Amino acid sequence: MSRDASDDGALRGWLEEAADVLRAVDAGAVSRAVQVLADVRARGGVIYTAGNGGSAATASHLALDLQKAAGTRAVCLSDSMGVVTAWGNDASFERVFAEQLELLGNEGDGMVVISVSGSSPNVIALLEVARRKGMASVGLLGRDGGRAAALVDAPVVVRSDDYGWVESAHVVLHHVLAYALRDSVSAVRAPLRKVGTK
Questions:
Q1: What is the pLDDT of residues 8-21, one digit of tens each?
Q2: Minimal CA–CA distance to 38: which of 161, 183, 172?
């Protein structure tokens, strides 16, 4: 089925808007986030991820890629519906991530939160636990970064009020983080593989 020119124009406009949102991301902030996560991996720590709604799905995808693509120990606190609903029912929804990290997290581990607003109460409670435990932290955030921007070691802020573009940018950024960690592992291991073949 054909589309008229106005439909094509609207689609081009959306694609350009999405590209503009990504172009505006601070590459230096992304680099700092990569270094924070690389340091966690170098000291043998676990990287935890969490988010709400669409950001929960991105957090799960990030943990998957950190494990499989980047060879990094990673766990998503949003993944278990049983655990999340148990804490939500017995404590409060504000504590669904914080209570998990109280049990699982250790000094030297890392925490990546993904949040469009940067101010979700359960994300803030989680970051407060991470800080108290001496964990490094990264935030993939939207808008102005919200309260989370001041609580993480490396905030990466997608400065848009459009949830769709922020969430889409976060998916791209999570792949950038995973690829950067993957390639840093390859760079370290490559000389060892070369020596072993001679």
A1: 899 999 999 999 99
A2: 183
